[in-house]
């Protein structure tokens, strides 16, 4: 079951801008919330995710067709959170 959870998490990291931004800002909290929502991750998977360079997910997301992206219209690089 844990492998399916990592697939879901990686999918969200590359297709969900708000999730990716939250992860790059505070990965431990995002991972805790992900697991509390019913997804299983092993300690090894959590360690690997934490060790992965933060900009990887954004670089991969740039390669995905925008029609597959869940864009965040709330806040861009020059906008403030409301």
Structure classification: mainly alpha
**Residues in helices, as a percent range:** 55-70%
- Biggest β-sheet: count, sense, barrel? none
Q: Low-confidence runs (pLDDT<50, min 5 residues)?
A: 76-82
* Order of H and E elements: HHHH
Q: Any idea how many domains?
A: 1
Binned strand content: under 5%
The count of helical stretches stands at 4
C-alpha-based Rg, rounded: 13 Å
Overall geometric form? globular
Distance between the termini: 37 Å
> How many β-strand runs?
0
Mean pLDDT: 86
Description:
The chain has 82 residues and is mostly helical. It has one domain. 63% of the residues lie in helices and 0% in strands. It is built from four helices and no strands. The protein has helices at residues 2-15, 17-36, 43-51, 55-63. Helix 1 (2-15) packs antiparallel against helix 2 (17-36). The longest helix is centred in the first third of the chain and has 20 residues, at 17-36. Residues 76-82 have low confidence and may be disordered.
